[in-house]
Design brief:
Blueprint (H helix, E strand, L loop, with lengths): L2 E5 L3 H12 L5 E6 L14 H4 L12 H6 L2 E5 L3 E5 L4 E4 L4 E3 L2 E4 L3 E3 L8 E2 L1 E3 L3 H13 L4 E4 L3 H12 L4 E5 L6 H18 L3 E4 L3 E9 L2 E9 L4 E3 L2 E4 L3 E3 L15 E2 L11 E3 L4 E4 L5 E2 L4 H17 L11 E6 L2 E7 L6 E8 L4 E8 L2 E8 L2 H12 L5
Helix pairs in contact: 1-7
């Protein structure tokens, strides 16, 4: 290949560019990014950056020399609008095209919004630097009660940060407990207690029915939520943490299969062998035969090595095996989870105690450990995580 274009300039795109050079690609490398920034880290957006303890420069995924060493052409502040796999071109929003022999799709996704919030001031998502700067400014100007809609990782981190800023916080979640899909009912119950201990109000088991607002300047500003069970939650600021949708609209007409992401084989290769996908946008076939998509930092960091290898080979010569590792910082606690926590028939605390907020729990199915969750116990967690990654004995 003479030219490879990486579409998406966040973590997955940056790691893809690094692997292209590390695996011997010496041709023209083009990186396209919709945002005006060089690749930066997103996890701090809902934590240190929102709290104001980290600045924009600290988010960068390397020093300027690291970007220079890639010898890439950076097309930042423009988005991809089309892909012609036959002609080998990527169309951009500024009217230009990039002629290319291979494409890494690393466009990630866009934060989901909630119907009824269009045009209402004070409703925010947390996906980009600009999102968080707007939220941070709004919280400073309107330090009233905050409502967080969605109790997944982003929502619970945002709630923790807002509470640390001294704000009154209510978390609204349609499921019965925060993080129950990721951790199961027992460990999710522990997280429920963590929120309560820090003065955060939880409203679980009822979704949002309506956003209330009042005239404000030339528009309207949010005043609260009405839940499906009739409960009213006052709020001067609302944070939406209801997930993301893969950024695949630019692939319409490309001939590639798109279904909740760019559909790939087990090696992250799309239906065209010169196109691979990595990160939040990649929907691939797992070892179990299921077609899955993961929205985690570790996944976006790990996938590029496999995807680039297959792209340069022109065929699937390696399959991706995820480590399924996720971490989160909430209320001064480090939460870590790895492996498969779903469908466990037993969850056992193997060290420490839930009451002490320092423990490790093993998830087991049919007697075998399939997953591990820890709070404030990184040493044992790391050892057990390594054991999960070891191949099963024959």
């Amino acid at each position: 290949m003479r030219t490879v274009t990486v579409v998406g300039a966040s973590l997955a795109g940056m790691r893809s560019a690094e692997h292209l050079r590390a695996q011997g690609f010496e041709g023209r490398l083009v990186v396209v990014g919709e945002e005006p920034h060089l690749p930066y880290d997103r996890p701090p957006l809902s934590k240190q950056f929102l709290a104001g303890t980290a600045d924009t420069a600290s988010l960068a995924l390397g020093e300027q020399s690291d970007f220079d060493d890639l010898d890439a052409q950076w097309r930042l502040g423009v988005r991809a609008t089309g892909l012609d796999t036959t002609a080998g071109t990527v169309a951009l929003s500024d009217g230009t095209e990039v002629a290319t022999d291979g494409v890494v799709v690393a466009t990630g996704g866009r934060a989901r919004t909630v119907p009824g919030t269009d045009g209402i001031e004070g409703v925010h998502t947390v996906r980009t630097i600009e999102d968080t700067l707007a939220l941070r400014s709004d919280l400073a100007e309107n330090p009233g009660p905050v409502a967080v809609v969605g109790a997944g990782w982003i929502g619970t981190e945002a709630a923790s940060t807002c509470r640390a800023l001294g704000l009154e916080v209510t978390v609204v979640e349609a499921a019965r407990e925060p993080l129950v899909r990721a951790l199961g009912p027992r460990m999710a119950g522990m997280c429920t207690g963590l929120h309560a201990e820090h003065g955060v109000t939880l409203r679980c088991g009822a979704g949002v029915q309506e956003f209330t607002s009042a005239p404000s300047g030339s528009g309207r500003r949010v005043t609260g939520l009405v839940l499906a069970d009739g409960t009213r939650v006052p709020a001067s600021v609302v944070v939406l943490g209801v997930g993301m949708r893969p950024a695949t609209e630019w692939l319409a007409g490309s001939g590639l299969e798109v279904d909740d992401g760019l559909v790939c084989d087990a090696g992250l290769v799309a239906s065209a062998p010169n196109v691979v996908a990595v990160g939040d946008v990649a929907r691939y076939r797992s070892a179990s035969g299921q077609v899955v998509r993961h929205e985690h930092w570790t996944n976006a960091s790990e996938q590029p090595g496999t995807a680039v290898r297959n792209l340069l080979a022109g065929a699937t010569v390696a399959e991706y095996r995820p480590s399924r590792y996720v971490w989160s910082d909430q209320y001064g606690c480090r939460l870590q989870v790895a492996g498969h926590t779903e469908d466990a028939d037993e969850v056992e605390v193997v060290e420490g105690s839930e009451e002490s907020r320092s423990f490790v729990a093993a998830y087991r199915r049919a007697g075998s450990t399939t997953g591990v969750f820890a709070m404030n116990n990184p040493k044992l967690f790391t050892r057990m995580r390594r054991q999960l990654l070891r191949p099963a004995p024959v």
